[in-house]
Amino acid sequence: MxxxxxxxxxxxxxxxxxxxxxxxxxxxxxxxGIGIAQSLLREGFDVAGADxxxxxxxxxxxxxxxxxxQPREAAEGASAVFSVVVNAAQNDAVLFGEGGSAEAMAPGTxxxxxxxxxxxxxxxxxxxxxxxxxxxxxxxxxGGAVKAAAGRLTVMGAGAPEAFAAAEPALAAVAxxxxxxxxxxxxxxxxxxxxxxxxxxxxxxxxxxxxLAAKLGLDLPTVYExxxxxxxxxxxxxxxxxxxxxxxxxxxxAVNIFTKDLGIVVDSARANQFPVPIAGAAMQMFLMAAAAxxxxxxxxxxxRVYQKLxxxxxxxxx
Length: 318
Fold this sequence. Notes:
The structure is a single chain. By secondary structure, this protein is an alpha/beta fold. The chain has two domains: about 1-185, 3-Layer(aba) Sandwich (Rossmann fold); about 190-310, Orthogonal Bundle (N-(1-d-carboxylethyl)-l-norvaline Dehydrogenase, domain 2), CATH 1.10.1040. Helix content is about 55%, strand content about 15%. It contains 14 helices and nine strands. It has helices at about 1-20, 30-40, 55-60, 70-75, 90-95, 120-130, 145-150, 160-175, 185-215, 220-225, 235-245, 255-270, 275-295, 300-310, and strands at about 25, 45-50, 65-70, 80-85, 110-115, 135-140, 140, 155-160, 175-180. The protein has a six-stranded parallel β-sheet, with helices on both faces. Helix 2 links the parallel strand 1 (about 25) and strand 2.
């Protein structure tokens, strides 16, 4: 009974802290992080954004935010700190590396980890932060840069009720849907892997389909119009094929993101002795695009692998 009462008391204290403290840190001001930071600003939060790239920091300054160079500067005095970096190694660096945020976060602060990682990573990191009294929310995100900028992300959350309570005001500013998947870190990242498996496979399939349509001499805009009104459509087909039709491979989400994420899917499946042949085939297509020098280009560049293999003609930008 004493333990439960103490937990309830801590939860109430955290909720009051979160509601009263409008200072939030965002570490990583790339295409997703900048949208999260801007959404928080729009809702009246005092936001400090950190990024290693000066151009990204300047972009945030122009949006009215406080740009800082070190993760610890973004974390100082914050009730919540969002980490919107690429992988677990970068997450560790912004927490525990030189100029890291872990030492700057006061007890009761919540660290909101948005990157795609192996599901085994969040529990270990949460335990390290718990030694400092810092909460950890396993909170991978989906929706792309457009929804990030509009404050309409989907959050796949997993963590203790206290972590959700501390993060709730800030999450309301950046997300349209917040799923409470579990009361412990890890399952949120597991759900994100399922999402990325499907997303990667759907992009590779859309690229293959449009490449075959080109080989068959079909009018590609017409194919797009027909498929988006038919059973073969997917969100990724509808979203990515316009990049192909415009010949525009400026990165909204890069090929290298899926070599990483599908790699995590395959590694996790292998660790669980579970076959994922379709995900494995999709990963090879992204690896081929990366090997051809397109790693930093838009992930729809998988279609250009087929272009090289089959000698087909695809639209180009004027």
